[in-house]
Amino acid sequence: MSASPELSESAGAPGRGPDPRAERSRAAALAAARDLLVEQGWSAVTHVAVAARSGVGRSTLYRHWPDASGMVRDVIAQRISTAHAPPTGVLRDDLVRELDGLRRLLHDPVSDRGLRAVIERAGVDPVFARLKEDLYRHGSQVFRTVLEAAKERGELPAGLDTDLAVDQLAGPLMYRRLLAGRTVTEEYVQRVVHDFLAAHAPAAGSPPLVP
Amino acid sequence: MSASPELSESAGAPGRGPDPRAERSRAAALAAARDLLVEQGWSAVTHVAVAARSGVGRSTLYRHWPDASGMVRDVIAQRISTAHAPPTGVLRDDLVRELDGLRRLLHDPVSDRGLRAVIERAGVDPVFARLKEDLYRHGSQVFRTVLEAAKERGELPAGLDTDLAVDQLAGPLMYRRLLAGRTVTEEYVQRVVHDFLAAHAPAAGSPPLVP
Fold it and tell me: What CATH number corresponds to the domain at position B13?
């Protein structure tokens, strides 16, 4: 996830660093786009609505974001950080920590709404299709690293299907939030990891769920 | 899921049964709405677009569906049937069969797109919020019945959290289709059920995955 090309190109005159006024306009526009996204969904994020709400001129908006979907993309990319802590090498802890990141993301109004927009638009809008690919790839990367390392250490079966494993870890949280509309607690995350390990690494002997 | 009230009220004059012409118009309108939904998502399903595509007059459309979201709702409700086969009492078979229904639903273009629309709109449009509730409740009901019966027979732990169990069964498929965009095979469904039982009913002894 990186800043949009539009920004990098328009944020300042060449050789003079970013223009603070342009930066402020961009921040104001994205704040307005973010609020519209949370309150009414992606379809409310239009140049007209963002201009009215932010006070940024419509022509400036069109220059930065020729398509309204670019504004939604930048709101989501800005919010859904892909910074992950490096794995510690303790399988259960690493899975819980990573899954807890997803839990927090699903409970953040902006990233929750952004994720729903991405899921809905990916099939019909290439901007969202690319964003979905990025989110999925970055979002599952640490899981993959952790799972592969555990396979190498013999803590998970060598034949374990990593894609399936990611689905089994992330899927329950997604289903619970996006469809059932229920809260995901830290304890829930512990349970999902516990059951995942019970299914795939029973020989390792699962410690009791509640410490 | 039932026919919309608009339809029942407007399909025929009182006491004379449904009006075949009104039925044809409604079917043509819903077919156009369905195609627009699949091709461009819910936001393309407008009175203007459906009228142009179906040949049904715009005033007729407004009479049947005062809001465009009502057309999307009826397309989805019509497609996502809630007919489920009655459980057989064999836990693994019942879970596989029910989950295979979800698999097929996720691979049907109309219900796939409808589900994405529901997930995106539920937070901002009451029509979709109700639809999501219906889909979730009906969609998880057979799972609940099967799981509760297995608990009573002692095939699953009495303390098993049924909500979590539904998440663990349906979640991986949803994540895989909606976010990863991958195919869900019948074998995948078998694996999810296998791993679910390995986590929760290890004492029962899982038969080998491939018969």
Answer: 1.10.10.60
| CB-closest option in A121, A174, A199 to B199 | A199
Q: What is the pLDDT of residues B20-44, one digit of tens each?
A: 988 999 999 999 999 999 999 999 9
Question: Do A163 and A91 share a structural domain?
Answer: yes
ipTM of the complex: 0.86
pLDDT digits (tens, 9 = 90+) for B80-139: 866 677 889 999 999 999 999 999 999 999 999 999 999 999 999 999 999 999 999 988
DSSP A52-82: HHH---HHHHHHH-SSHHHHHHHHHHHHS--
The predicted structure's pLDDT at residue A18: 76
Distance CA A58, CA A43 (A): 17
Looking at the fold, whether A109 and A56 belong to one and the same domain comes out as no
Cα distance from B16 to chain A (closest Cα, Å)?
41
Q: What is the pLDDT of residues B41-58, one digit of tens each?
A: 999 999 999 999 999 999
Does this model's pTM top 0.90? My answer is no
Which of A66, A94, A112 is the last residue in one of the domains? A66
Please report whether residue B120 resides in a domain. yes
CA-to-CA distance for A51 and A61, rounded, in angstroms? 7
Answer whether A41 sits within 8 Å of B121, measured CB to CB.
Answer: yes
pLDDT of the residue at A78: 86
Whole-angstrom distance, CA of residue A80 vs CA of residue A95: 19
Residues B115 and B198 both lie in one domain: yes
**Residue span of the structural domain in which A168 resides:** 83-203
Number of independent structural domains in chain A? 2
Smallest Cβ–Cβ distance between A136 and the set B168, B179, B199 belongs to: B179
CATH of the domain at A138: 1.10.357.10
Same domain for A113 and A39: no
> Can you spell out the DSSP letters for B115-146?
HHHHHHHTTT-HHHHHHHHHHHHHHHHHHHHH
Q: Are A53 and A96 contained in the same domain?
A: no
In terms of CA atoms, which chain A residue is nearest residue B187? A164
